[in-house]
Amino acid sequence: MTEELLISQDIYLKSGIHIGTKFKTKYMSSFIYKTRPDGLSVLNLQKIDERLNLAVNILAHYEPETILIASRRENGWKAIKAFAQYTGCKAFAGRYPPGILTNPKLDGYVEVDLILVTDPWPDRNAVKDAMRIGVPVIALCDTNNQSNCIDFVLPCNNKGKKSLGLIFYILAREYLRKKGLIKADEEPPFTLEDFTEE
User: Fold this and answer.
1) CA 125 to CA 90: how far, in whole Å?
2) Is 4 inside any structural domain?
3) Which helix or strand (DSSP H or E) is residue 54 part of?
4) Residue 154: helix, strand or coil by DSSP?
5) pLDDT digits (tens, 9 = 90+) for 133-174
6) Can you give the CATH number for the domain in which 151 is found?
7) Closest C-alpha to 171, from 66, 88, 68, 57
8) Fewest 10 Å CB contacts: which of 4, 81, 109, 172?
9) What's the order of all strands across the beta sheet hosting 67-71?
């Protein structure tokens, strides 16, 4: 018997969550299902779903105000802003100001216990800051990402708007359920469209 997915396979596939890049790193090889004839690597959908579930379990150990989500990549802005709005987490959409976690003298200084980044490469300043202060990092990683300095890898297409929207929609819905803010079978007070670009 296969375990039930967090969302239907059809919705996963439509979002392109499993479509990787032509480059693959050894760090990500265990999450890759196959390489297509055109050279694109395809991520294992079952593993994406499993890791999403694990990521939610990690997030649920933290209060929302102690979680920071960062996305330098514009495709993730709508998704992380919606996530922050519905869960109460902090979000940085755009350029992450270096030192915001490490320098209490800065205006925007924040203290957090967990960081989630949409891509460890463009979001490397946030990852570096987290390392300096010993805060764990969850990172959405595509087939071309390195996973050094990352505490938890969430494999996915971390470049597409639909894929990022779906990931943050699922994370938000499951986070609210785990926190007991909505019942397990209850629909959240938002839709997938709130997280995805038109």
Assistant:
1) 16
2) no
3) helix 45-59
4) strand
5) 999 999 999 999 998 889 999 999 999 999 999 999 999 999
6) 3.40.50.10490
7) 57
8) 4
9) 90-93, 67-71, 114-117, 137-141, 152-155
